[in-house]
Amino acid sequence: MSNEATRRIEAVHQETFAQHAPSGGLLGKLVPPFFQPRHQKLESLLVARRLILGTLLMTSSSDGGSLSWEAEEFVRRLRGSRYVETLGKKGNPIYVSKVGNQREFWLPTLAANAVLHVLLRDELLWLGSLNWEELAPANSSTIQEKIRGSRVLVQDRI
Length: 158
Fold this sequence. Notes:
Elements: H1 2-13, H2 41-58, E1 61-63, E2 66-68, H3 71-78, H4 81-89, H5 96-100, H6 102-105, H7 121-129, H8 132-135, H9 140-157
Antiparallel strand pairs: 1-2
């Protein structure tokens, strides 16, 4: 799952992920040929969670040591510019939680100050293994600090 998620996050970083059909949401983009049919739905969901989390961090901004989500950039990278334009035309604010679909991906929160504290240990290990200097050069140190701090909290819960 980590290898598959890493391949997908590279596509998000290179801005090619959103270009691939079908357009039916994130899980639709993880079907063949981009995600092998031998994988079970649970594996697809876990890869999608990692993809959401990695993209949230990649498109975040840092202010005084805290992270804030850049929802428009998040939507653009995962779904494409036309979805940002459509959401903007409706006059609705763009909420990351609507795009991430918390229920479908079992994320109890997508709040910038809380999401890293509710992840599985292996999700945090995967996030920690990514090259944040390349993926998010402007705030890589803040991202790495938040991931390390969250890993400590997870260790304390075990």
